[in-house]
Design a protein that fits this description.
Number of strands: 4
CATH class of the largest domain: Alpha Beta
Largest sheet: 4 strands, mixed
Helix content: 55-70%
Radius of gyration: 21 Å
CATH superfamily of the largest domain: Metalloproteases ("zincins"), catalytic domain
Number of domains: 2
Strand content: 5-15%
CATH architecture of the largest domain: 2-Layer Sandwich
Structural class: alpha+beta
Length: 291
C-alpha cells in the first residue's frame, strides 16, 4: 500500500511539473489523476501479464518440460503453495523470475539456458527461491513496480521531448504571482522531470534488494539443502551471458540481474551496476555457506 501511494504521489508530481512547464491546464491534471488511478488498478490486476509479455515468456508445455513441472509441484507441496503457472523463455542466459499478485495468481518463468546449465538439485534451489518470493508476497510489490516505473519514466520523457521540440511553455507568469516566482516554479518543475525517473528507480531498488536475500534463506528452508542454491548462484556468478529480452523495468524480478554488468557484455554496464537491484552474488553465496 505504501509503494502504491508513493508512486501515485510521484506520478501526480510529474503531472504537476508537466502542467507548469507546458501550460496544459486543469484538464491535463484531471486526466493525469485518472491515468494514475487506472494505472494503479491495471498494475494490480495485469502487471504479471505485462512482465511476462516483456520477457517473451511462453507457457511451458507439461510434456516437453515434465521435469520442470515435477520440480515445481514438489516444491509447492513442501511450501504449502498452490502450483503457479509455469513459463519458458527461449534464451541461453540462465535466469528465472516469479510474478503475480498473490500465491493463487502467480507465475514462475525460467530461461532455456537455466534448464540446460543447472542440474536437478541446482534447479530445485532456484525454483525454491522464486517460490519463496510468491510465499512472501514479494511478487506483488515487485510486479507493481514494473508498471509504475514505466509510467513515471514515460511521462517525464514525453514532457522533456515536447519541451525540446518547442512545445507550449508555462502559462502567463502573472498567474504565479510574478515573473520571478514563475521562473522558480518552472525551474523546480524541470528539475522534477529530470529527477522523477531516478526516484522511481530508487523505489524499485528499495523494493528488491532486501527481498532477494530473504528469498535465498526462505528457499533453503523449503529444500532443506543450502548447497543446492549455493551451487546454482555460483554458476550464475560465473556465467557471462545476459538475457536478451530483459529491461531495466523488469530487472528486479529476476534471481540475478539480467542486464550487462561488464564492458564486454554491454556499453551501459556501468549504469546497470550503479542502479543494481540485487545484492552482490558473492555476498549471497557467503551468507548461505554460513548456514
Amino acid at each position: 500500500m505504501l509503494l502504491v501511494a508513493a508512486f501515485m504521489v510521484l506520478v501526480l508530481a510529474v503531472a504537476w511539473a508537466v502542467d507548469r512547464l507546458l501550460g496544459l491546464g486543469l484538464v491535463f491534471l484531471v486526466a493525469a489523476l485518472v491515468v494514475t488511478v487506472a494505472g494503479s488498478v491495471a498494475g494490480y490486476w495485469k502487471s504479471d501479464a505485462i512482465a511476462l509479455a516483456m520477457s517473451h515468456a511462453k507457457p511451458a508445455d507439461p510434456d516437453t518440460y515434465a521435469r520442470l513441472h515435477n520440480l515445481v509441484e514438489g516444491l509447492c507441496i513442501a511450501a504449502g503453495l498452490p502450483k503457479p503457472r509455469v513459463y519458458i523463455i527461449d534464451d541461453p542466459a540462465p535466469n528465472a523470475f516469479a510474478t503475480g499478485r498473490n500465491p493463487k495468481h502467480a507465475a514462475v518463468a525460467v530461461t532455456t539456458g537455466l534448464l540446460e546449465k543447472m542440474n536437478r538439485i541446482e534447479l530445485e534451489g532456484v525454483l525454491a527461491h522464486e517460490l519463496s518470493h510468491v510465499k512472501n508476497y514479494d511478487i506483488l510489490s515487485s510486479t507493481l513496480a514494473v508498471t509504475f516505473v514505466g509510467v513515471v519514466t514515460l511521462m517525464a520523457d514525453f514532457a522533456l521531448r515536447f519541451m525540446w521540440w518547442g512545445g507550449p511553455r508555462q502559462r502567463d507568469h502573472d498567474s504565479d504571482g510574478g515573473g520571478g516566482a514563475g521562473t522558480l516554479i518552472a525551474v523546480l518543475g524541470f528539475a522534477l522531470l529530470l529527477l522523477a525517473p531516478l526516484v522511481a528507480r530508487l523505489m524499485q531498488f528499495a523494493v528488491s534488494r532486501r527481498r532477494e536475500a530473504l528469498a535465498d534463506f526462505s528457499g533453503v528452508q523449503i529444500t532443506r539443502y543450502p548447497p543446492g542454491l549455493v551451487s546454482a548462484l555460483e554458476k550464475l556468478r560465473d556465467d557471462n551471458t545476459v538475457v536478451h529480452s530483459s529491461s531495466r523495468a523488469t530487472a528486479h524480478l529476476w534471481i540475478e540481474s539480467p542486464l550487462a554488468r561488464t564492458p564486454e557484455q554491454g556499453r551501459l554496464a556501468w549504469l546497470n551496476r550503479l542502479f543494481d537491484t540485487h545484492p552482490p552474488l558473492e555476498e549471497r553465496i557467503q551468507a548461505l555457506k554460513e548456514l
